[in-house]
Specification:
Elements lengths: L7 E4 L4 H12 L4 E4 L12 H4 L10
Parallel strand pairs: 1-2
Amino acid sequence: MTTGHFDFAVGMSGGVDSSVTAALLKAQGHSVVGLTMKIWDGAVQIQEGLKHACYGPGEEE
């Protein structure tokens, strides 16, 4: 049962490092909460040419 007390708060970037950090702390028996922030405007449209720049050869959205 969660009491609202956590040993660690981990800033979750969406990458592997923060996820592994949280998992390792949990595996060691700590109570962990992950925090994230929305720091972009969801209404912003990405140009089609730039959207494809994020993917390598053979990768798709």
